[in-house]
TrEMBL record:
Annotated organism of origin: Roseiconus lacunae
PPM-type phosphatase domain boundaries: 29-277
The protein, known as: Protein phosphatase 2C domain-containing protein
Listed transmembrane segments: none
InterPro entries in alphabetical order: PPM-type-like_dom_sf, PPM-type_phosphatase-like_dom
Stored SUPFAM superfamilies: PP2C-like
SMART domains according to UniProt: PP2C_SIG, PP2Cc
């Protein structure tokens, strides 16, 4: 895998065959984004990795709404607006200054800017957006929609998992439905909160202290609609960074092509960002 040394890396309309390794503070981000098998339209997923200083970076995944006009355009706008507000907020500041600044206002401004620009398209386009900021090994997630974030400890304990902004996701969070039933629910793919909606709202997660062996997964529903959470946890935390990603991609792709009704399986674009030690 090639190591990307640039401070900002965009993934838009990507159809990758191999993951890419990006060096960040305290570890690596492995990135992968591929178009749904058999699909002729562009990949509706987009992703971003941006390093702001020696100890701070942000990563994000956006999944343009499938079937909606210009879903790929909406997801690209989302990550571009986020990168723009982050870059503008810290332009010209040295690492020492950036390390003292709060990332939250710039991240929230980026989401609001993206929402306004997508609405201005007037096409009905929309996208999910999941963002993780890491500041001196303290991580926090920001969520709109059903692209998911998962913080996993070195021994496999889930430190934090985002909530899918959907009727099924809220039912799971409330304890009214377990994850197994949710994977097969007829309304699993209905999303109740999107960038590109006048009713958009932003969920901000807790600050999580990362230990040396912790892993963070940010993925579109091409991952989380095809793999159970425990399957993601098992594969994301063991082995070399590239090997972890390859295992996730292989199983998700196999599930898309699978014929076993007892296992989840849904054709979709697939985008994963994996933060590893």
């Amino acid at each position: 895998m090639a190591t990307i040394v640039h401070p900002t890396r965009f993934f838009r309309e990507s159809d990758m065959h191999q993951p890419e390794l990006i060096d960040v503070a305290g570890g690596h981000i492995v990135a992968f984004s591929k178009t749904c098998p058999g699909k002729t339209e562009p990949n509706d997923d987009s992703a971003l990795v941006i390093s702001l200083s020696a100890d701070r970076f942000v990563m994000a995944v956006a999944d343009g709404v499938g079937g909606a006009p210009l879903g790929y355009k909406a997801s690209a706008i989302a990550i571009e607006c986020l990168a723009e507000t982050l870059s503008e907020s810290f332009a010209g500041a040295g690492d020492a200054v950036v390390d003292q600044l709060d990332l939250r206002p710039a991240i929230l401004d980026g989401i609001e800017k993206a929402n306004a620009e997508i609405l201005d398209l007037g096409t009905g386009s929309a996208t999910t957006l999941s963002i993780v900021e890491v500041n001196h090994r303290i991580a926090r997630g920001y969520q709109v929609g059903d692209s998911m974030m998962l913080f996993v400890g070195g021994r496999g304990a889930i430190k934090w998992k985002s909530t899918s902004h959907s009727p099924v996701g809220y039912a799971v969070q409330a304890g009214l439905m377990d994850e197994e039933d949710a994977m097969y629910h007829d309304e699993r793919h209905l999303v109740s909160n999107l960038v590109g909606s006048r009713e958009m709202h932003i969920e901000i997660g807790p600050a999580i202290n990362l230990s040396a062996r912790d892993t963070i997964v940010v993925g579109s529903d091409g991952l989380f609609d095809n793999l159970h959470t425990n399957e993601v946890v098992q594969r994301c935390r063991i082995g070399k960074p590239g090997r972890r990603m390859e295992e996730l991609v292989r199983l998700a792709t196999d599930r898309m092509h699978g014929e076993d009704d007892a296992l989840p399986g849904k054709f979709d674009d697939l985008t994963i960002l994996l933060l590893t030690p």
